Amino acid sequence: MALARLWPLEALENLQKMGLEEILSQAQQCRSPSQDYTDSDANTAGAKDLKLLLYQLCILSLQQKMKQETVLTYFEEIQKIRPDLKSKLADVLFLLDLETDDKEITSKEGDGNENTGSTEMRLVRQQFIALARSCVGIVGEVILKQRLEFETLESLGLITSSKAFNQKYVKIKTKLFYKQQKFNLLREESEGYAKLIVELNKDVNESSDTQKVLGVINSLIAEFDLDPNRVIDFILNAFEFRPQQMKYFVQLIKSYNCEASTLCNTLGFKFSFLTMDSGLATKSLYFVAAILIQEGLIAIEDLYPHLKPANDEFEKDYKQSLVQARSNAKKINVLNPSEKPTSIESEITKDIERTLQNQKIGLCFALLSLYDWSHSQFIFNQLPMHSVASHQLIAVALCKILHTTVDPIYKKFVPKAANSQPYSQIKRTGCPAQCQNFDDLMNDVLPICYHLGPYIYVDQILIIKLLRIGKAYLLECTSSNNQKDALWGMMLDLLSECLIPSLSLTECNASLGEELWDMIKIYPYTVRYHLYHHWKIVSYNGHINLLKSKTKTLDSARYIMKRITKENVKPSGRQLGKLSHSNPGILFDYLLSQVQKFDNFIGPVIDSLKYLTSIAYDVLAHCAIEALSNASKQRSKHDDSTTSDWLQSLATFCGLVFKKYTPEVTGLLQYITNQLKDESSFDLPVLQEMITKMSGIEISVETTQDQLEAQFGGDTLIAEGSFFTNIRNVKKSSQRLRDSLLSENLAVPLCLLLGQQREKIIFGTSNDIHIKVIGKLYDQCQDTLIQFGWFLANQLHIEDYRKHLPPMNILQQEYHIKPDVAFFFSRPMFHHAVQSRYEKLNDKNNDKERSTEAYIAAAEAYMGELIECTRSILPAPTWNDISIQLYVTFWSLSMYDIYTPTARYESEINKLTLAINAVDVENIAPSKRKKEKERLTNLMEKLKIEEKKQKEHTERVKARLSREKDAWFPLRTSKKDLRVLCFLQTCIFPRGCFSSADAVFCAKFIFLVHSLKSPNFSTLLLFDKLFSDISYIVSCLTENEAHHYGRFLCCMLETIDKWHRSKEKYDKECSNYPGFATIIRKNEASQSDTSKSNQLEFEDYRRVCRKWHYKLTRAFASCLVSEEYIQIRNALIILTKIVQYFPVIDNLGKALKNRVDKLQKDEKDKRPDLHALATGYAGRFLSKVSQMIPEEKFYVKEVTTKSQSNKSASSSSSSIDTTKSKAVNQTSSKSSENSNVSGSNVNSATNNGQPAVKAVVTESKKSKKEASVSDSTNISKEAPISKNLGSSLQDSKKPKEHVKQSDDRKLRQPSPIAEELSKKRKVQDGSSPIEVVKRDKHEKGKEREKDKSRIERKRERPQDTEIVVQKESKRRRDEDATDKLSGVPSTSSKTVRSNVENAKVHKEKSKSVKSSHKADATKSSARGSRSSSPASSTGSKRKEKDSHERGRSPSHNVRRELRDEQKSSRKQYPFNNIRFL
Length: 1477
Description:
With 1477 residues, the chain is mainly alpha-helical.
């Protein structure tokens, strides 16, 4: 009943049914701690108090309606969401403590229920004690001791005895609030201290008698029994309030005869008392202590332990604040740039308060104010470095001492200091003496500067003084070449620790930056970059103020970069300039990071950098090198095929910065050199961009034809029309780049490293790298090498060039530079050497012949020296095939020597003429118009003079070459083809793939050798080697090399197309030239024989052109169907380059178009770059489709007489085979009668005045042994091509009385059927079968001897020839494999149809042979009606009979015969069977 009246059970039933989630939900709905103290009804409406919820849960536990463990679990979960649970639960327990008290409950119960109620309450009390004891861990002992009653605490076991605890509580309370403080009022009389205070505070001066005052003080001590120690305390207090009477009080203290320890302890007690009362010591107290220390009355070592804080505590606080500053610097938005900066006065006030709070710093400041460096240095040494000087008061005091100290030496070595403010010597204890020389500076000034550190910024005049003194010292050392002494290193420490970091704490002082640059520019860039690195990495992280400045700079830079555009470059540039005056390194690191991410920032950022100081530009160069050398960034994209965007953007930025502004380039060049030494070429784009931007020299495979033509002219034409940019605008920047290369001797090392790196990319890279990446790196290195070589040739004086560049043999033997690179770098030196000798020999003679002779003599004199240096470059056997004179001549000449771009000169002159006319129309000032017209007129005159000079030079060079030509190709009868191969391998191919200009040079040089009628040189063979099969060459090229090789092929195709289109040009440029001769004679005296009988006719040349086009088509088709990426890409590039001249035959073009269309479809989703190349070529191809011609118009397939034309038109194509057999047999029989040599000149008859085609048939074994068959025969024996070309050279049948005029009929060997017919015919003519068998055995023996001789020749071949033969064999196999894929028919459609009809006829005849002889006669007559001669009919009968006897069908024999005829058609072309007479 008592419990029911105390706690109604109805209100607790709902709570008892709830679970944990519902309890927590109600706890969240309770009022928050902030709402407990609000009076608003809106805040409290519907909100339940958390105390009520806790109270109800405790009631349920006391009533045993809910387990105690469950209630405790609820409390713990509620505490997680309500941190104020402890306080509220303590209040609930206090309330329950009162409610469950036995005394209160018993007084409330009636008499009848007293025993029952007391029993129930005792049980409840026990439950409460158990619950409270369980809640101690949740609430805590301290809170419970504050809230609960003493008896309850005793029951809980928190206190031992409630009675004892209550007594102790009363005593402490009485002591705190009621006990009075006691003083020594009985022994000492206050009147004496009063009189002492009056005596010490009288008006005194420095001349006052301290002995008199001391006597009064002694009297007061004796009269009033004063404590002497307290008297000295009063004296110090009086001194503290009147520090200006320093001499008086110092004398008084000295006269008082107080012990130093007592005085020190008294002063230390005063500092300690201020610490206990948390008060601030006044400035005067610090000055009193400083004066006593300076006068020697107390020792600083004795007073220092009394000062607070302790060293350990001070160091801990300093490091903690430094760590906090570093963490703040790493955050993005620590400072708000829009925040208004605090005023200087408020900062100074805060610094003063901070200084006075630290007693050690305050004492140090007082000592420095008295110029006492010797004693204050003790405090500096006790505390962390620069922690004392970080206080502005300390820094200002130190700067005053330095001003006085450096004044004499400043006026002595700096002329500008004559009118500066004088500083006299301060004669005080501990003050350093004034410096008179650099030794005094090292001993007295620099140690103070080291302690001062970057906080010297508070006195910028002092910084300028120190910079000028340091500059004077460095100039004196460099001028007298003195050895670096200790002061040299201390000057570096002064810069790195003090002067340079102080720039970060200044506010936009550009003049200070220039003064700093005047000193540090004397050091080399390596020392400067070390200083900058120390500034960014060490200085900023070691000083709190510098970290704050760094954070502020970064936030301001972000604020500016978010708003920078092309329109607001000027104001944004000013803001960036202000930031760069104080923190250039931090600013440029951020700018470069943004440039690497967003390349569209490059332009605005470059334009905004025009407000920088000189030192800022130097720091920018250092930051760029650091950004490039970041090892954490990948230099290629994820597919490793292209350069990373950040590296390319950074390279472009560097090129533009070094062009537009004037930072030193040497550091970046040295960095690239070091990377090449480490065999890394990923940073070469930086060098490319620098050369491109600073000199205007660009390297691009997409160079236009006009630009390429301009490169063949003189310097003026090159400057005006060769590059995309105007070289006049880069004159100064190119000179700076040149001077940087020469100052550090980097020009030649870069040349050598680029040449070596080009080979290391191929042979030194890992196998894991994709071949596409290797090709990209190789092209990049090659382009940089060419670009750098052009720059050196244009900018370096020839004497510097010759002085630094090693000779050719040294380049090849010691530095392992390839010949093409060595000649490329040495070519300007060759030209200058010959030209200088020519000028000496010519002596300004205007006679053309004499000047030509002088030039030839100069060239021969220098070439003799060059030949000796070059002889060891290639193996000695090479010079047996081509002369070393040809090799040196080829590699030493350039396009300037053999070709004059007259059209390009005229084009530029016309442009200048139009520009002069436009100047007259423009509305500009007259003086400016006149100056511009003069410039354009002078430029025009230069071009005219240059063109004339180049033409004369070209004529002299050609005259020289015409004399040298006879010795270029030695006459070697056994290795004719190797001459051409050697010339191609050692000259044409290496240089043709080197650059675009060199590719054109190779084509021009080949034409020049041909036009000079060089002996022993076959132009036809060279063309055939070039066009036979280029698939292997295509597979070995990089992307840029494919562009160059395509340009070379384009020039060659242009030449053969010119001759193919016009018979007049062919007769003029080819007919009487040795290069188109079909016979090369052994006798050198007969080399001049260029009779028409030995020359290739025009129609034969056109057929040969068709063969070359077909072979090119086969090669490109095989490349396009290949799965190799490199092969497909290079084929498409070359096809794009030669699309103007190939293909020109419609059926070949269709075959290529089919391959390209299929490639587009297949590679669309696989390899987008190949798809893009194929699409580009397809577009160009479509524009040329209308210009293609049919095959029958490209060349004449048949050469017949007028009388035969009608018959051949009506005759059937199936009779060609038998006619061929007869004609060959007749030809062979006639040749055997006339001569023992099987191969001879056969002159066919002429009909109706038409000339017959002449050729030389080489079939004898002797001629085959003498001729160099190894290469030309391999080319001529390509089955897939001969299948198609054989039909093109077949002639139609002719009557018996006429001789067939086609060359292939003379050259072709008889088929097996024709041989069988010939044998039977011989038997019928009277030869016995035995003689026929003997003859056959004899012929077979000759064939075996021929095979043996072929094997022996193969063994005797040089290694190079064997490689060529193996390549030719592999090439023929590949052609056979790709024959079906090429899309070009192997025979003409008519021949195929005739072969099919022939096969059907033979099949029908074979069925009727067994029936009767009459049927055979009938079939033979039917066969004869379709043939042109009886011999063919007889041959067919015998062939059918032999085929039947062997069990084979005639159609099988026909197919075999066709194959044999197609093989024999490989010998159709006259130049393939050239023999020596």
